[in-house]
Request: fold
Amino acid sequence: MPTKISVFIPVFKESQLLKGIIQFLLKDSYKEKEIIVCVDEPSEKSIKLSKEFKQIKFLMSSERRGKVNSLNEAAKYATGDIFLFLDSDIIIDQENFLEKVVEEISNYDLLEIKKKIVLDSFLAKNVYYDFLSGNLLNWYMAQNKGNFLWLNGSAFAIHSDIFSKLGGFSKAVSEDFDIALKAYKNNLTFGYAGEVEVYLKVDPSWKAWYKQRQRWAIGVTEWMQHNWAVLMSKSWYSNMLIPFLINLVPLFFVAALFLMPNLIAEPLTKLFLIISLQKIIVLPKILLTSNIIFVVQSIFSSLISFTLNFVLFKYAAKKLGYIFKPIEFIFFYFIYNLILLFINIFTIIKYLFKRKDIKLDWKV
Reply:
């Protein structure tokens, strides 16, 4: 009997890309499929689409239930062997997309799908490298560990019986992190679908980006608070801690400027100062202080760390089929990550000490 796939698309009010997603999925050659669109507070545009595509199941709610509640409710109506969750801000343009998903997940319990970014804005070009690092990590974890640190909820697949076994999505801001950790605790297998990909449309507004990253920072903090016992367990600690820290805050790459590379930078700094003093001038002793040495050492650390990450990202881009542009990567590495660091630190501190003051445009 052919494997049936149920596709879920959550929507709040409306989505400019929803019609294109539906049309693509309907034209997909895979026959055993059903498409369920969950719409909270539907706009006139969404209501019109529900009338236009009567072969699609539209589950409408006049109230905002939130992504978790709407998807868990929709799962009760699904009849597929495989559940495919897609956000409404993606674009799909691969032939035989659903068939490839079914083939890829046949050897795993959960399947992470490669995400790329539509490069139509300056912000999108920075988010592109952000997603590249996440995809590289999940590819590596799938190849070497058989599991992930998390799933990216914008596109992933899971067997329907496994989804039921895990109790569906938990009521959490980062529901994708949560279901991945539940799968890890149950020793489930993870796969990375390198041959299947979707494109995410990034809102060009930095304000919208700030709100999204603020929500993600809160989601990760909440996730860590609720799962600290698992995160501190010996098995998770030994296998997952270092990769988790590297990708928890992309700023790790910037922070690394003053950490591990110093093992190399310190001797280089001393050599540089010796050569400079001999070739140029004899500096007053007051300038040969720890401050001067720290500055020069930091410069060397920056160059070493940047070079290592430049090579890593370039390799990742080639391995996973991404585009790599050095000038864009420089801005991403030194500026975008720094901005993101401040956002994460500020949000986490505010969440821990002034949680009531945070207003998220998000329903859990």
